[in-house]
């Protein structure tokens, strides 16, 4: 899977990395059980501190998206993805709330908002393809 | 015999000179004379002109130098010849460094004159499966090399009595012996020790090609990752072949100690092998380009630049970036890899290679 990062974005690198990996799993580009690069190798390929990668991997592990083994290294969780827990529902509501609030302030109607959610959902599910070649 | 020397000088130095002349055309399109640029800038008329100018200036310089060198080579005696050759190499190194520095400094000014929004980009891409593709050959291939070295050593030991009492160690340009040593175990086995040291060095280089930082173009990451994988695999194969040729050459030198072959054959073989290696490297450079950008190229991508890390590239060729954990990175100028000197391991690697080379020279004496 190709991970794309913007080093000048306001979103921290570890968060971008987490989002990209979760999106990769969602789109099927990363298969359960698939190897991910080691902390050291990914840090040097991206050119960032080891702690940045470690943080992303540790958080992904805590949430159950990946497993970190001593010998096998880092793999996408082969035992299935974490389910919909009350904790997750609460977190999701907290994250969506300000987004929806801003849309309402700007005068976006419910239909348009749901349309955007739907099109993004489809986009992620079918995976992003390389646009230029 | 002098013709062999003159011919191999031409055969060896013309590919080197040509690769130096075309160097700016082989680098990545996001780098111009050691400065990061956007692909759009790279293809601008101004930079096109600069590349042409670079090629002309260096081309004329190397042609003059080679002509002067060949002239002195054919005119002077034995002592003058090795002097002419070494001063030619020295002048070529100084000349190319001076030209590169001049163009680097000019490029810095040129970049400052471009509007800043054409350069800014911080996008990078990494392929999580990059190292699970075949990007280098296995180090197990070097067992073949080691087997040859050990067989040579075993044969040398078995037939130790048949080696002459004085061993020819060094030859002049006419094929005559200029230095010989009394027969000893160390002198007889010196080629094998050198072989083993070199095999270790080439195995290390092969690892370096594998480990080196992934540098793929965020505008077309899939194509770029594929190109880079082929680039590494080809250089890794070249490495193994070049190592094999050097191992065979050293075994041949050991064979010559024992059988005292005709000096013409010795000269030819010992100049032919290095020439072949240089020509192979030349062809490979011209067909792959830095990072493999000349492999299966399609239309150039968008106009975004790589991450601007110019301040970490001292004079455009020494990489010193304490924030980057990568040890091996692609060179900015020319083709191949270099180290991140901000890492202590880089100094250890450099020292290690120097020691290996010095040890090889010491044992070869």
Describe the structure.
Chain A: This is GntR family transcriptional regulator. The complex is a heterodimer of chains A (133) and B (365). Chain A contains five helices and four strands. By secondary structure, chain A is mainly alpha-helical. In chain A, strands 2-4-3 form a three-stranded antiparallel β-sheet. In chain A, a hairpin with a 3-residue loop joins strand 3 and strand 4 (73-76). In chain A, helix 1 packs across helix 3 (50-63) and helix 2 (39-46) crosses helix 3 (50-63). The longest helix of chain A is centred in the last third of the chain and has 20 residues, at 86-105. The two termini of chain A are 16 Å apart. In chain B, strand 4 (166-171) and strand 5 (177-182) form a beta hairpin. Chain B has 365 residues and is mainly alpha-helical. Classes of the chains: A mainly alpha (133), B mainly alpha (365). Chains A and B meet through strand 1, strand 2 and helix 2 of A and strand 3 and helix 8 of B.
Which structural class do the helices and strands of chain A define? mainly alpha
Number of helices of chain A: 5
Taking pLDDT < 50 over at least 5 consecutive residues as the criterion, the unreliable ranges of chain B are none
Strand portion of chain A: 5-15%
Give the rounded overall mean pLDDT of chain A: 91
Estimate the global geometry of chain A from the Cα principal axes.
Answer: globular
Helix fraction of chain B by DSSP (H/I, runs of at least 4): 55-70%
Question: Which strand order does the major sheet of chain A show?
Answer: 2-4-3
The succession of helices and strands of chain B, N to C, reads: HHEEHHHEHEEHHHEEEEH
- Determine the oligomeric state from the structure: heterodimer
Largest sheet of chain B: 2 strands, antiparallel
Shape by Cα distribution of chain B: globular
């Amino acid at each position: 899977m190709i991970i794309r990062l913007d080093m000048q974005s306001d979103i921290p690198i570890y968060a971008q990395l987490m989002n990209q990996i979760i999106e990769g799993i969602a789109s099927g580009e990363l298969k359960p059980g698939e190897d991910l690069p080691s902390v050291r190798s990914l840090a040097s390929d991206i050119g960032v501190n080891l702690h940045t990668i470690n943080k992303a991997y540790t958080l992904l592990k805590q949430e159950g998206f990946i497993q970190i083994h001593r010998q096998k290294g880092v793999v996408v969780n082969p035992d299935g993805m974490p389910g919909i827990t009350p904790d997750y529902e609460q977190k999701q509501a907290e994250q969506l709330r300000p987004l929806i609030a801003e849309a309402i302030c700007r005068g976006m109607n419910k239909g348009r908002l749901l349309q955007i959610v739907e099109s993004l959902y489809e986009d992620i599910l079918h995976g992003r393809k390389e646009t230029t070649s | 015999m002098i013709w062999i020397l003159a011919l191999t000088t031409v055969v060896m130095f013309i590919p080197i000179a040509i690769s130096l002349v075309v160097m700016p055309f082989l680098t990545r399109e996001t780098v111009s004379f050691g400065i990061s640029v956007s692909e759009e800038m790279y293809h601008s008329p101004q930079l096109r002109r600069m590349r042409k100018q670079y090629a002309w200036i260096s081309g004329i310089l190397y042609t003059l130098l080679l002509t002067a060198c060949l002239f002195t080579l054919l005119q002077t005696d034995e002592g003058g010849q090795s002097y002419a050759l070494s001063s030619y190499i020295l002048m070529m190194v100084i000349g190319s460094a001076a030209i590169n520095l001049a163009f680097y400094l000019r490029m810095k000014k040129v970049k400052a004159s471009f509007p800043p929004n054409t350069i800014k980009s911080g996008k990078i891409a990494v392929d999580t499966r990059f190292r699970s593709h075949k990007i280098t050959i296995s180090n197990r291939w070097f067992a073949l090399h080691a087997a040859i070295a050990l067989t040579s050593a075993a044969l040398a030991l078995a037939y130790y009595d048949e080696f002459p009492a004085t061993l020819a160690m060094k030859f002049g340009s006419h094929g005559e012996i200029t230095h010989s040593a009394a027969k000893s175990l160390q002198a007889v086995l010196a080629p094998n020790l050198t072989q083993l040291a070199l095999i270790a060095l080439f195995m290390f280089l092969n690892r370096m090609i594998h480990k080196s930082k992934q540098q793929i173009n965020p505008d077309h990451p899939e194509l770029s990752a594929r190109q880079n994988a082929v680039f590494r695999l080809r250089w890794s194969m070249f490495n193994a072949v070049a190592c094999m040729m050097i191992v065979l050459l050293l075994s041949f030198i050991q064979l010559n100690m024992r059988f005292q072959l005709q000096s013409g054959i010795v000269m030819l073989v010992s100049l032919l092998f290095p020439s072949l290696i240089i020509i192979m490297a030349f062809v490979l450079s011209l067909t792959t380009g830095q990072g493999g950008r000349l492999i299966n190229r399609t239309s150039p991508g968008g106009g975004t630049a790589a991450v601007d890390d110019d301040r970490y590239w001292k004079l455009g060729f020494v990489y010193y970036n304490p924030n980057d954990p990568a040890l091996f990175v692609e060179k900015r100028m020319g083709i191949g890899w270099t180290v991140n000197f901000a890492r202590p391991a880089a100094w250890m690697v450099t020292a290690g290679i120097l020691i290996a080379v010095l040890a090889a020279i010491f044992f070869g004496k």
